[in-house]
Specification:
This protein is an alpha+beta fold. It is 35% helix and 19% strand. It contains six helices and seven strands; from the N terminus they run αββββαβββαααα. Strand 6 and strand 7 form a beta hairpin. The structure holds copper (II) ion (CU). It catalyses: 2 superoxide + 2 H(+) = H2O2 + O2.
């Protein structure tokens, strides 16, 4: 039965590994900002910019798009982050395909109601095409990164504007305005979880450990250890009863073992 449960879990894991969905990008460096400015070519009035900066909570990237002078025909227009920068000759064909680190490919077309399933660089697929000759939009895309180590990083890539028939009518490289600050990871969960486990799991036996910790903690004056002191002290009154009645302590040990099993079971369910 346990084996079948395990194989079920393995099958579920394999299924999710096959998925091409893009993960939500967390931890984008706060304040990171990039800007792509479309060059105005001779004989064309198309211009504008795509500004991108880390969302304030580091989850995804906030885009501010402002374009004007789009053609009177050939829309609705598309725009994407492409997988390569614009070459020095300015030829938009050199930008290659779309940014697509999770390899979902061009087909089927992006379903905007499932943005995680779209090509990461398919901004107009996820957030809407450009209907007219000028366009402004602001939105957060959760699947692109301002962290250089992330496969969805776009800061060294380009944005390309297309006619509806995919013809590339303009392109520009992103340039960095600010690299941003990487927020430090918080080791908070360790404290509370070990604090809970100690009283349940080992009961009275552990109270001596807690007390030793408390006495050294007063010396060093750590704020976190003094929080442990308050959970430790309620156990103290049970300690004398334990030493005076050996039979009782065996019962307690059994109860303690039960608690350990329950805790282990709870851990497995997580
Ligand atoms: Cu494109």
């Amino acid at each position: 039965m346990r084996a079948s449960l395990l194989s079920l879990v393995a099958a579920a894991a394999a299924a999710s590994a096959q998925s091409t969905d893009a993960p939500v990008v967390q931890g984008n460096p706060v304040g990171a900002q990039y800007l792509a400015t479309l060059p105005i070519k001779a004989g064309s009035s198309l211009g504008g910019s795509v500004q991108a900066e880390s969302a304030p909570d580091g989850k995804g990237v906030l885009f501010s798009i402002s374009l004007s002078g789009l053609p009177t025909e050939g829309g609705p227009f598309l725009y994407h982050i492409h997988e390569k920068p614009v070459p020095t000759d300015g030829n938009c064909t050199g930008t290659g395909a779309h940014l697509d680190p999770y390899k979902r490919g061009e087909t089927p077309p992006c379903d905007a109601t499932k943005p995680e399933s779209c090509q990461t660089g398919d901004l107009s697929g996820k957030h809407g095409t450009i209907p007219g000759q000028s366009f402004t939009a602001k939105y957060t895309d959760l699947y692109v990164a301002t962290s250089m180590s992330d496969p969805s990083y776009f800061g060294n890539l380009s944005v390309v504007v297309h006619l509806a028939n995919k013809t590339r009518i303009s392109c520009a490289n992103f340039s960095m305005n600010s690299v941003g600050a990487v927020s430090s990871s918080m080791p908070v969960p360790v404290g509370p979880s070990s604090g809970h486990a100690m009283p349940t799991g080992t009961g009275g036996y552990n109270s001596t450990m807690t007390m030793t910790m408390t006495s050294t903690a007063t010396g060093t004056g750590s704020g976190h250890s003094s929080a442990g002191e308050s959970t430790g002290s309620p156990i103290m009154p049970t300690a004398p009863a334990e030493t005076s009645a050996p039979a009782n302590s065996a019962g307690k040990a059994a109860a303690g073992a039960g608690a350990v099993i329950a805790a282990a079971a709870a851990a497995l369910m997580l």
